[in-house]
Amino acid sequence: MSNVNVPPEPNLPGSPAQPPSNGQKVPISIQEEMRTSYLDYAMSVIVGRAIPDARDGLKPVHRRIMYSAYQEGLVPSAAYRKSATIVGAVLGSYHPHGDASVYDAMVRLAQDFSLRYPLIDGQGNYGSVDGDPAAAYRYTEARLSKIAVEFLSDIEKECVDFVPNFDDSKVEPTVLPTRIPNLLVNGSGGIAVGMATNIPPHNLGEVLDATVHLIRNPQCTVDDLMRFVAGPDFPTGALIFGRGGIEQAQRTGRGNIIMRARMEVERAPGRGDKEQIVVTEIPYQTNKARIHARIGELMREKKIEGISEARDESDREGIRLVIELKKDVVPQVVINQLYRLTDLQTSFGVINLAIVRGRPMVMNLKESLDVFVEHRRDVVTRRTRYELRQAEAQREIVEGLGMATTEVDLVVRTIRESRDVETARSALMKLPLKGLEAFVRRAGRPDAEIERAKEKGDYFLSERQAKAILEMRLSKLTGLEQEKLAAEYGELCNEIARLRNILANESVLFDLIVMELEEIRSKFADKRKTEIVANDAEIADEDMIQEEDMVVTISHAGYIKRTHPSAYRAQKRGGKGKIGMEAREEDWVTQLFVASTHAYVFFFSDRGKVYVKKVYEIPIAARNAKGRAIVNFVGMEPGEKVAAIVEIPKIEEGKFVVTITKRGQIKKTAVTEYENFRQKGIIGVKIEGDDQLLSAALTNGGCELLIATKLGQSIRFAEDQVRSMGRGTVGVKAIDVADDDQVVGMAVTDPERPFVLAVCENGYGKRTNLEEFRQQNRGGKGIILIDASERNGPVVDVKLVKDGDEIMLITDKGQTLRTAVAEVRETGRNAQGVKIMSVEEGERIVALERMAEQPAGAEGGPEGGSEGGSEDGGSASELPPDDGSGGAAPAGSETPGEGELN
């Protein structure tokens, strides 16, 4: 709870000096005068206009409208009267402001889509959820609603304070003696100076149940009361997503509540298999016509492409906004898009600010109900005192009349002998009457009261009693009337005893309050309109994307794109195929996979950072388009290069990412460790010194790994020799490399690719069966892969291949060679290798790529037309300097899903 400081009262310490009353001019500080004047103005707006009173939940204008209607006799049983009648009465007697402000406030009290329980029963056009304004007050009619009468009940019994109106011609109540906790039930909203209030409406039955529980258990907590008050209950229904905002608001008085429209998916009548979304309830304080217009705008701008038509079929029966979908569109995707892009999802920022004892305060649920309970206690106490005074005064009259009827002859004689009324009254007051005991017996009072009457003896009339006797009709002297007087006396005695008991016992007082609250509940409580759904309402971008397969291609030059599979139509074997991308002649596809739009793609940089993207985020492009540069798409830091790209179908247990650095540090990390990724990247591998990340691959925990070094060493070991560890670790040693050596490649074993292909800088290489590389323990020096002799040169890379694969070799001078794996003769592990590509003196091979398999209907060769090279070295073309990584995916990153599309 937070208190807001109010300006100090005049003549109190801290107040500005007041000018003398003799008219003498006194200089004052303009800063102090501005401060004081502004605070006075601010508090006037806060207390007198914009912020509701916590006791009755009404602002002054609403209170004056209801009181004026009550004064005009416009109760539910009366006929409707022109709204101008109420507006005129309010303006003329209590609220000297503009008529538009009064009428607008009255219109809101009558709108069943603005108030959960309307306080004005309106007849005529009072506006609509489409934002249509109400008709002028000369056309509409109004009276108080049935529930509004409970706000004014007992107001004539001196249970609230009255103050003079603006011209001292009348008095008005400072608060209404409401029996309903209106601050929570109907809520409120207003903007003052420096503060605002925004209180949502709640269900009457729930709030009354919580109030009763608070009365019975004053020490209860907010959490106890939350068992009764589920949350806001908006007049327009709809849904509340998540309880977090509700609980925060109920505990602190502030919170953010997510509201969603209620939508249902139906089969479109007469449209075959097409479906339609029907909106039947919209969030509180939203405009249906604007929502409809916004949907049409999104359709025209193609921001939502799954909608064929949107129309408003609403009528007096309720809201019905129909959104027809195109064929084969997933309705939930469109629903998520509508929630994200329109007011079909919006939020309600709760600020439970109200005036408490003249000060604005932000209250939690318990504090709000405490104020109402205290108000009811004060109202009932004052009402009881008033009723006790009235009952005692009436009993005094009845007792006097009863005494007169017991000694009729004496009373009549005394009156007849009196000269005038004043003499008769004085004579009656001096007359000793002895019939008190007989009257009390006749009234059937208890023995104790009879004994007290007997002891009292003579009875002298008061002035009020004497006056009542003089005004009494002779018919009161009949026997039947005497019995009625005795019965009335007995009832009044019982009522007085009851009222005194209420004032004397606090528990009885609260029992009466509870009884009245339960009576209100039985008369007006209804079912909730708003459903609370215990889900997080945050809509991720993924929820707006229809899940479907896409073909993702990555080129050697570092470009990426995704293409719909329909672009690769199926063709018969031997066909010419289609152009894949408008790439430069030296570019080609090095990695291709088919993945769901909701799958992940991990981009590892050479510094060990990993950037995570969803497939749907990859730029979509035509089959012959080049795509987008990966470095720009991912948003890497200056100087970073792409070291590896790994497709992750789903972040789940049992899957791992294995990375290797050039210094031979290997690490295995569970995919789930990467779940909380960030846009700017996260640490994937801790890189020490001048080491660099070289490669990464997705495994299932039971694979084998083959590591190759620049000087021709290799090691093959089981993946389970590498324990799983966190992202921010260095890893363990995969192979013991010499100071002048480094790792150049890593391959994950694949049953479909039984050969190891190693290529050296001078164009020599060899293809060897994987089985010739025995399994070893991790961390050793390994065995010979190929002789990195002066003839062969250092090893460039190693790939696992099969006979049907094709490879691409690239030199540092831009020469490229594309050849089939079958062209490379299979040799043993100890062989020197064969010449694969001729290089000129001073030229060296810098990269080995295995060509990605194409989906059905794509061109069989490299995308972009030219094959980019020939057996004799091909045409020269200029390439940027290459550090060996190639700027594309390394070996081992292939995933299931490559190959032909059905």
TrEMBL record:
Domain Topo IIA-type catalytic span(s) in chain numbering: 51-550
Subcellular location, principal: cytoplasm
Name used for this protein in its record: DNA gyrase subunit A
GO BP annotation list: DNA topological change; DNA-templated DNA replication
Entry's Gene Ontology cellular component terms: chromosome; cytoplasm; DNA topoisomerase type II (double strand cut, ATP-hydrolyzing) complex
General remark: Few gyrases are as efficient as E.coli at forming negative supercoils. Not all organisms have 2 type II topoisomerases; in organisms with a single type II topoisomerase this enzyme also has to decatenate newly replicated chromosomes.
Biased composition (Pro residues): 7-19
Enzyme class label: isomerase
The organism's place on the tree of life at top rank: Bacteria
Region of interest: Disordered: 1-25, 851-902
PANTHER family: DNA GYRASE SUBUNIT A, CHLOROPLASTIC_MITOCHONDRIAL (PTHR43493:SF5), DNA GYRASE/TOPOISOMERASE SUBUNIT A (PTHR43493)
